[in-house]
Amino acid sequence: MKVSEKLRRGNVMAATCPAREVLQHVTSRRGILALIALESGMQRFSELRRKINGVSERMLAQTLQCLESDGLVDRVAYDVVPPHVEYSLTPLGREAAEKVRLLADWIEDNLPRISQAREERQGARAKQAHPVPARASQ
User: Which residues does the annotated region (Disordered) include (predicted)?
Assistant: First the structure.
C-alpha cells in the first residue's frame, strides 16, 4: 500500500491514528446502542433514552454529541418551549449502524456459547486458585 493511501485510510493499530477516536465513539456500548436505536428513523431525545434502557441522560447526550461530531448523527433543534430536539442517522451513520448491528446480532445469537465459555473458564480459574490437595500415601 502506498504511503498516500495509508495516510488517507488511517491505521487504527497506530497509537496516534485519529480513527481510534471514532472507533471508540462507534463501538462504545452507548454508541452501538444509539446507532441501532436510530436505525428505525428520527427520534426525540426522550424516545432514545427510553429505548436505550439503563443509560443516563448525561451519557446519552455526550454519546450523541460525539456521534454528531463524527458525522454519523444529525441533530435538529426546534426553537420551541419546551425544547424539542430530534436525532437521525446520516448516510454515513446508517452504514456504521448496519455494521454494529451485525456485531450486536452475532453476540445475541451466540450468547449461549459465550455464557458457556465464561462458565468453563471461571471453573478452570477456581480450580487453579484452590487446587485439591493430593492424599499422602499410606
Answer: 118-138
Task: For residue 91, count other CB atoms closer than 10 A to its CB.
Answer: 9
User: Quick one: pLDDT band at residue 8, thresholds 50, 70, 90?
Assistant: low
- Look at residue 88 and give its three-state secondary structure: strand
DSSP 8-state code for residue 110: T
CA–CA separation, 34 vs 57, rounded Å?
12
Alpha helix (H) residue ranges in 1-138: 3-9, 19-27, 29-38, 45-51, 57-69, 91-109, 111-129
Q: Check: CB of residue 61 under 8 Å from CB of residue 45.
A: yes
Q: What is the pTM of this model?
A: 0.80
**pLDDT confidence of 1, banded at 50, 70, 90?**
low
List the domains of the chain with CATH numbers. Answer: 3-129 (1.10.10.10)
Write out the three cell numbers for 93.
451513520
The rounded distance, in Å, linking the Cα atoms of 4 and 59 is 37
The distance from CA 135 to its chain's CA centroid, rounded to whole angstroms, is: 50
End-to-end CA distance of the chain: 70
